[in-house]
Amino acid sequence: MKLKGRAIMEGIVEGEALVSEMPIGFYGKVDTETGIIHDEGHDLDEECLTEKILIFPKGKGSTVGSFVIYGLEKKKTGPKAIINAETEPIVATGVIIADLPCVDRIDISKIKTGDWIKVNGETGEVEVNEQ
Amino acid sequence: MNLTKEEEGILNGEEGEGVQKAMQLVVKLGDIFGAEELVEIQSAQASGVSYKSIKDEGLEWLEDFASLGAKTRVPTFMNPAGMDLEHWDYFGFPEDFAEKQLRIIEAFEEMDVIPSATCTPYLLGNIPQKGEHLAWAESSAVSFANSALGARTNREGGPSALAAGICGKTGKYGYHLDENRHATHKIDVEIEINKVADFGALGHKVGKIVEDGVPYFTGIKPNTDQLKALGAAMAASGAVALYHVEDVTPEAKEERPAGQYVETITFGEKDLKEEKEKLNTGEKPDCIMVGCPHSSIIEIEKIAKMVKGKNLKTKLWICTSRPMKELARTAGFVEAIENAGGDIVCDTCMVVAPIEQMGFKTVAVNSGKAAEYLPAHCKQKVVFDDIETLIKGALE
After folding, report:
1. What pLDDT is attached to residue A60?
2. Measured between CB atoms, does A20 come within 8 Å of chain B?
3. Is 80 exceeded by the pLDDT of residue B258?
């Protein structure tokens, strides 16, 4: 299945999907040393983001979240790419300063955790290969 | 987005990696928000300066960004830091915190950011004109510039405001455009309000209701310090970037005809009392902390006159910018306040300083913004009242 969205940040990568139905607030919730989310009640609580294609509706919370995305990439504990329903400024700023491929305006309900995903941050195309 | 030849060149790296990275951020955010072009800005103001707020991740990004050789192209001011940059030791700021904080300031200075360390650049000679485009990040300063002065800025994030300062431009969207500056809510204030704290309570209530709307006030005549308090509270409890006050602010004539507002709200005696009660979560303060946003010379003079020749039984911090303290020193206000047992703390404030690590548990404030942030951000109980009552209580 191929989905077409909007390119936010360049880069072509592939990897395994980690899908959340809930907005993610990176500041105070994601440990940049381990890449693990600690957010009780979140559907990705205790999940590790490292090397995943991270898929969630949108960002939320403190604007410092942008720096957390940068920190994850710098420590190599972060995801390979981000796909959103709608990328808001906190995540947009984060992926741009971190050089992390990102696409938005994708119907993320069509993607399941474990699917193999090819992300094209130049064209906004996302290829989904079901698990 | 339509870019000029020069902008394209910067984006392609013709003028170095630092400004290229900055332009990338400015252009992409502009694209996301639907900007058709970039607009030249007269100044920028970067937030995310306190080490308490941005932590090691932010420090590293700033140092990495500075190492790319990025320099500002328009005057760029910085928000308050997490401590008094000169007298941190005297006030008991932790040493490891101070070391990281000073590295952050150095990184900003390397990029030619003016080390103003204040949330009130408009009290320090950076007074934008009506219609001027800016890229400011501090939410209370954004509100003041848009509302009290009629300048035009969105609520920028820390990195985006810095990037705009480096490019000298920002995306033309949001509050840069006429169509987004109209009032959405009408607020009829039915009581006379003349204390800074009461404007803070009014703003705190209205911000929660209108969220990111544009309120239009009737029935109030705020002065500069009161506009500063009102806007700061609405930007903290909500995300208000622009408001109008009938017969006071420069764009108030933009009022929409009655009936076109999303909502009309009245604010009376009972609302004021209820809001002040809600903001009060403690008693017996360890310290009175004023200057959120940073105190003006007029506010400092008022306190100096109240405490001159007397003894304060509670600690007092007056937070302001360093140049304002120098003026207060020349005027004799610093001496009067220090002799009474109070302190003027520069470059920081009660919200972005690590006061929870410095032994404070309950603080007294006259700011709606501080009352909003202190409980969660600084683990404090709050006594909220007007400055006359707080000082009087500390002198008895």
Report:
1. 83
2. no
3. no
Tokens 């410092």 locate to A64
Give domain limits for chain A. 2-129
Distance between A97 CA and the closest CA of chain B, angstroms: 7
Contact B206, B232 (CB under 8 A): no
How far apart are the C-alpha atoms of B84 and B321, rounded to whole Å?
A: 10
ipTM over 0.85: no
CATH topology classification for A2-129: Glucose Oxidase; domain 1 (3.50.30)
One-letter amino acid of B195: K
Average pLDDT over residues B35-59: 95
- A42 vs B73: CA distance, rounded Å: 43
Chain A segment 64-103 residues within 8 A of B by beta carbon are 64, 66-68, 70-71, 74, 87, 89-90, 92-93, 96-97
What predicted TM-score, i.e. pTM, was given to this entire model? 0.91
- Residue B253: what pLDDT? 78
- For A16-57, the DSSP string reads EEEE-SS-B--TTTB-TTT-BB--TTSTTTT-B-TTSEEEES
Q: Which residues of B touch A68 (CB under 8 A)?
A: 57
Ordered by where they begin, the domains of chain B are 5-178 (3.30.499), 182-277 (3.40.1060.10), 280-395 (3.30.499.10)
Say if CB B142 and CB B238 are below 8 A apart. Answer: no
Q: Which of B186, B153, B187 is closest to B171 using CA atoms?
A: B153
How many whole angstroms separate alpha carbon A83 and alpha carbon A115? 13
Blockwise average pLDDT, block size 10, chain A, 131 residues: 95 98 88 92 96 94 84 95 92 93 97 98 96 82
